[in-house]
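Hi team,

Below is the intake form for PPM-type phosphatase domain-containing protein from Cinchona calisaya. Please confirm the fields before the structure is written into the shared record.

FORM ID: S-0412
PROTEIN: PPM-type phosphatase domain-containing protein
ORGANISM: Cinchona calisaya
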Amino acid sequence: MGADAEVVVEVEVEQQSSIPIPVVLDQADLALADDRNVSSSSGTTALTALIFGRLLMLANAGDCRAVLCRKGQAIDMSQDHRPSYASEHRRVEEPGGLIDDGYLNGVLSVTRALRDWDMKLPRGSASPLIAEPEFRQIVLTEDDEFIIIGCDGIWDVMSSQQAVSLVRCGLR
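The structure came back. Fields below:
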């Protein structure tokens, strides 16, 4: 598949379902694994933001980041899932994963991703690379101006505060 290809995965979830989002993402990951048209050695990260009234809910798996601007100050609403973070480092080593020169098993720069099945252990086994997202929620206030959702291409070259300042300047 080319870089511009779009893959749509349908996971059946009843409208009134109580299936937790991590389970839904795992089901999507497994559905992609069963699709023989998708390479087993490529993957992606995912970040979703939902706003219900004044409640902002985020789910992140990978090195995307959401940053809320509150009165001009950057508030990180997600954590990059990289091997260099202590909590991810521990989680990776628990099932036998290795961090080599800052990379998961010497290859991957993230510790959570969809696809990348050649890095995952057999189905049902604990794996150092997982699709399970981390969640965060916050009640929005009148002081909240906007949210930036971006991939590592932004965050590798600027801080959250620099991005917020740049956007604020552009909005004036």
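SUMMARY LINE: Confidence is low (pLDDT under 50) at residues 1-16.

Thanks, M.
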